[in-house]
Amino acid sequence: MKDKKNGDDSLQPTDGPLTGVEPKQETPESPKAGPEGATPSAPIAIEKPKAGGAAEQRVDADGCPSSSGDHKPRTDEAHPSVAAKSVSAKKPQSFFAEQTPLAIKVAPRILRYRSRRDFLLFGAGALAVLTAGGCLLPQDTLSRIGVPRKIDSPGKEWFLNRALRIDDDVAEALYSGTRILPTYTKSQITPLKNNYNGATPDPGYISGWKLTLDGLASGLSISLDIRNLLSRFSVHEQITRLVCVEGWSAIAWWAGVRFDDLLRAYPPMSQAKWARVESSVNLDASGNPDPYFMSLDLATARHPQTLLATHFNGQPLTVDHGAPLRLLVPMKLGLKNVKAITRITYVAEEPRDYWAERGYSRYDGI
Amino acid sequence: MNALVLPHPEPKSTSTLPTQPGVLVVRKHHFLVRWSHWLNVPLLLGLILSGISIYWASPIYQHKPDPNTGNTDVAADIGIWICTHVPGLHHYNSPPDWIYNHVSLGPGMLAPALRLHWLCAYLFVLNGMVYVAGLVRGGGWRSLLPRRTDLLDALRMFRYYVGFPFAKVARRQWPHPVFNTKYNALQRAAYFSVPVAGFLSAATGWAIHKPMQLHWLAALFGGYNAARVWHFWLMWIYIQFVVPHVILVFADGWDTLRSMILGWSTRVERSEVVAHEG
């Protein structure tokens, strides 16, 4: 708003001759000078003394060329008021006021040279980004848009997985073993669908169900049935949100024993950092056995809200929700909340993970 | 290779200007602003394409299952509508997937879409920081700040755009409103809102991505589900911005487009001549 003035119109005329003279002139010092001159205070400091006088001068300065080209009548009736305002605004510029741009005179030869160089750089960069970006698209998408060749280099997989791992590391850094996740009231409960990836198992497995623990400090393999669990450990209730990787979520009322209590009662071997949580009753879409296995870091397993759930909405778990025992890790995506757990194995190295092998992330902290 | 640009503090007399050889140019965009501006093109494209594939997995806008098709997804309804009403698409083999087949990576591609979305999202946030750094270093942020006069000026610009086609048809003069600022009020509003939208997209993205560890952030947007709705509609801000942005840049001329590539403009009207070079 600073120096608004009628002389503005004259801009077009001034501009005309200039561009006319040198239609394809190119880069000035600008790219370089930009950054350097960027010490913002410097130009401003120089500007200040000038700002007042220069702006005023410009009015008549610009007035000259505009009068020379009698191009059109003044169009801005509304301007007197603005012009008046500009006079008052001609005081030292405020920090927030737009700076008067500085015009630089550049030899046409230099401008051409710089422009050519910068255009080439821009074109090369654009081409590189387009190629790289296009290659990163999934193969299915590429073949659908008619890319004939298969672009499936190991480098592409490595790069995309690297991005996933960085995201997992961020999730791990955000995790806190003492942060209690939001809990809800019973009135906030929402329906929870059965999202078994394949077929829902036949409930026949429940009668003979046992939980096996491996990788214990004792070196033994322990088998527990649901009665052992419920009689040994105290039952905790919580109403938490289960968030699916697909985007939906549900607030549900769970009850079960704390994973942490199980870890204290049957300590894992000392070097163990991970649990492999497994369900051998899981089926694929056509109903064939498809064991489900999932990696869980022990830091998450020790969180007080990590449950081995036995009850849903006050009732024992149904087959739909992983009877008789499912993992409940609300600080992980739903796909880590293994239904119908049959085995937990403590290991030192990160174990395989069903969904990580299918292109999803591994840590899945939310 | 050139002497540094030295500001000449002495007031110049315009009469000498035309006699000096050279082209008057004015710096327009800091190079960080230019780079990050262009990088937004592939990044936003990647984010939107993968984002709609992610949306496919669990659409926000659903209805009760359709008695005929069993379909619940509004985006699939739109695909079906397009395939029935647009000539030449009657035989499209999967109308419910039309939208996803044309404006996303495709249906059933949640894992690759998430992977690409995280990659683009981290780069988008980094790129946004570079953009802001360029605005600060080049001083360009001052041109984007909303002003008190903006509402009225925006109305003048709006009136100009609305009247422009009629004036063309009637062969009447229809002068562009005059502003002695880098941008007019409508431009300023747009260029100011897009970085704000970028910030909100990142914030709602984190709220959806980490709704437990960052549950306060999700709560800020009204909870996890509401944050998903925010995130979805923020995407439309970019789309609504980009379409007129591209049209108007071409309408405005080569100088404007070139200045975003090279960083200078020959529109020196508002400037003071302070430096000589060459």
Explain how this protein is built.
The complex is a heterodimer of chains A (366) and B (278). Chain A is of the alpha+beta class and 366 residues long. Helix content of chain A is 36%, strand content 16%. Chain A is built from ten helices and eleven strands. In chain A, the strands form two sheets. Chain A has a five-stranded mixed sheet. Chain B is mainly alpha-helical and 278 residues long. Chain B has a single domain, classed as Up-down Bundle (Fumarate Reductase Cytochrome B subunit), CATH 1.20.950. In chain B, 60% of the residues lie in helices and 4% in strands. The longest helix of chain B is centred in the middle third of the chain and has 29 residues, at 110-138. Classes of the chains: A alpha+beta (366), B mainly alpha (278). Chains A and B meet through helix 1, helix 2, helix 3, strand 1 and helix 5 of A and strand 1, helix 1, helix 4, helix 9 and helix 10 of B.
